[in-house]
Amino acid sequence: MSAEPSPQSPWQAATITRIEKRTPRVTSFWFQPSRPFAHLAGQHVDIRLTAPDGYQARRSYSIASAPEAGGGVELAIERLDDGEVSPFFHDVAAVGDEIELRGPLGGHFIWEESDGGPILLVGGGSGVVPLMAMVRHRTLRNTAVPVALVFSARVWDEVIFRDELIGLDDRRDGFDLVLTLTREPARRPSDYSRRVDARMMAQAVERLPKTPRLAYVCGSNAFVSAAADALIGAGVPAGIIRTERYGV
């Protein structure tokens, strides 16, 4: 994910206050910044690690927590075996550790209650993280804006925030969850077992009461390209599709 740092977002110290494993490769870390800040659903922060010899590594991570949640910010960090930052968090970081952080960053891939809906969210793997902030924002604002989330994961055990999302889906309050597994059979009658395609996107749109006002797509470059093409193939206007990409 890329965004130029805002002059209003200098580096600051942030303390890890909580750690929770989400999937075998994704763990949530909660950070309490030394100078707390407000953020919007969909924004991200930069993390900077500095080695004893002065070498620095930086990465951007989407904020998973809703703006109203309080208690710092939650980042769901996927372990990348060849990464410079994620192995530190998974293998070394502990509650009480202090790191450098700046943000919030990003002003395009955001959703606020005042933006209205319906909205269609499409996430692949850890690309669900900023979408989760939007879903949580909707829940905590107790708004009736219709939302459909299509979440693609390889297998059932890699569905990040799985229990929370299914619990929200069960409320039947206008939030609709569609899981699609690419390497396992679907576990729920309404889910899929294949990669995203135009037919799946068309059926996701049909779950909404009317044409989506906005669509958000986040994931790897390849996933975002495929999902955006599928949305356009399903008749979703390209002008309402907002994308966020990471990786290669």
Topology of this structure?
Elements: E1 12-21, E2 26-33, E3 44-50, E4 56-62, E5 73-78, H1 86-91, E6 98-105, E7 119-124, H2 128-141, E8 147-153, H3 162-170, E9 175-181, H4 198-206, E10 214-220, H5 221-233, E11 241-246
Parallel strand pairs: 7-8, 7-10, 8-9, 10-11
Antiparallel strand pairs: 1-2, 1-6, 2-5, 3-4, 3-6
Output the structural class. alpha/beta
Along the chain, the helix and strand elements come as EEEEEHEEHEHEHEHE
Strand content: 25-35%
Q: Can you summarize the main beta sheet? A: 6 strands, antiparallel
Globally, the shape reads globular
Number of helices: 5
Radius of gyration: 18 Å
User: Share of helix among residues?
Assistant: 10-25%
State the strand order across the main sheet: 4-3-6-1-2-5
Distance between the termini: 11 Å
Q: Which stretches of 5+ consecutive residues score pLDDT under 50?
A: 1-5
What's the mean pLDDT score?
94
The counted number of beta strands is 11
Protein model, in words:
The protein has 248 residues and is of the alpha/beta class. The chain is built from 5 helices and 11 strands, in the order βββββαββαβαβαβαβ. The protein has helices spanning 86-91, 128-141, 162-170, 198-206, 221-233, and strands at 12-21, 26-33, 44-50, 56-62, 73-78, 98-105, 119-124, 147-153, 175-181, 214-220, 241-246. The strands form 2 sheets. The protein has a 6-stranded antiparallel β-sheet. A 5-stranded parallel β-sheet has the order 9-8-7-10-11, sandwiched between helices. A hairpin with a 4-residue loop joins strand 1 and strand 2 (26-33). Helix 4 (198-206) crosses helix 5 (221-233). The protein is globular and about 55 Å long. Mean pLDDT is 94; it is low at 1-5.
